[in-house]
Amino acid sequence: RKEVEQDPGPFNVPEGATVAFNCTYSNSASQSFFWYRQDCRKEPKLLMSVYSSGNEDGRFTAQLNRASQYISLLIRDSKLSDSATYLCVVKLQAGTALIFGKGTTLSVSS
Amino acid sequence: GAVVSQHPSRVICKSGTSVKIECRSLDFQATTMFWYRQFPKQSLMLMATSNEGSKATYEQGVEKDKFLINHASLTLSTLTVTSAHPEDSSFYICSVLDPTSGVTYEQYFGPGTRLTVT
């Protein structure tokens, strides 16, 4: 079983759509959770951290359910510039390496 | 500005040759750096943890004699792919652990090195 699993997509949506990505992780001892964004042939960039209480950053909302080991990302009012691969990432403890999911590809069209 | 640099950004080499990739921390001294590898349409996979002044810790399945890591200073770690083969063609990315970020232990990624072995 993979440590972090995501639906690879691709998700093809029109501009303005709302899209949701899901992710599950296998290690219940994981302490930190993130969503990263990776553009084609580039390094991943931190989109947002994910907290148990849920958190929002503009059009992006992240949720964490520790009991079911489930993480989600909601993107509202999709823009063309949101087209990218979204990586679900966990960290076991402070100072350790990040564990990446395979990523979910989003394509937003006009 | 960039926090982490990598050099080269792209390299093409012949099978059997060795390639050195540099990862530099530009903004702070880093005792810990990580090396990842990403094959097409795959996730980033941790190869090894590089610690300044000590031997690197390799993940299971990563050959330490093939992927030589040297963390010679607090701002530089190098990954040398020895006797490269076509199956080593991949995107190699380093990340640097920011010791000044407190309990969040933020990590910053380099721009990556795309290696193609012909």
Provide a concise account of the structure shown:
The complex is a heterodimer of chains A (110) and B (118). Chain A is mostly beta strands.
Question: Your description of this structure?
Answer:
The complex is a heterodimer of chains A (110) and B (118). Chain A has 110 residues and is mostly beta strands. Chain A contains no helices and 11 strands. Chain A has strands spanning 4-6, 11-14, 19-25, 32-38, 45-49, 55-57, 60-65, 70-75, 84-91, 98-100, 104-109. In chain A, strands 2, 4, 5, 9, 10 and 11 form a 6-stranded mixed sheet that branches. A 5-stranded antiparallel sheet of chain A has the order 1-3-8-7-6, with no helix packed on it. Chain B has 118 residues and is mainly β. In chain B, the strands form 2 sheets. In chain B, strands 2, 4, 5, 6, 9, 10 and 11 form a 7-stranded mixed sheet that branches. A 4-stranded antiparallel sheet of chain B has the order 1-3-8-7, with no helix packed on it. Classes of the chains: A mainly beta (110), B mainly beta (118). At the A-B interface, strand 10 of A face strand 4, strand 5 and strand 9 of B.
Quaternary class = heterodimer
Helix content of chain A: under 10%
> Based on DSSP secondary structure assignment, what is the total number of beta strands of chain A?
11
Order of secondary-structure elements of chain A: EEEEEEEEEEE
What is the average of the pLDDT values of chain B? 92
Envelope shape of chain A: globular
Q: Largest interface, by Cβ-Cβ below 8 angstroms: which chains and how many residues each?
A: A-B, 17 and 23 residues
Which radius of gyration of chain A do the C-alpha atoms yield? 13 Å
Q: What value does the Rg of chain B take, in angstroms?
A: 14 Å
Low-confidence runs of chain B (pLDDT<50, min 5 residues)? Answer: none
Mean pLDDT of chain A: 94
- Helical content band of chain B: under 10%
* Total strands of chain B: 11
Structural class by sheet pairing and helices of chain B: mainly beta
Give the biggest beta sheet of chain B. Answer: 7 strands, mixed
Note the gap between the termini of chain A: 37 Å
What is the terminal separation of chain B in angstroms?
34 Å
> Structural class per helix/strand content of chain A?
mainly beta
What is the strand content of chain A?
over 45%
DSSP strand content of chain B: over 45%
User: N-to-C SSE series of chain B?
Assistant: EEEEEEEEEEE
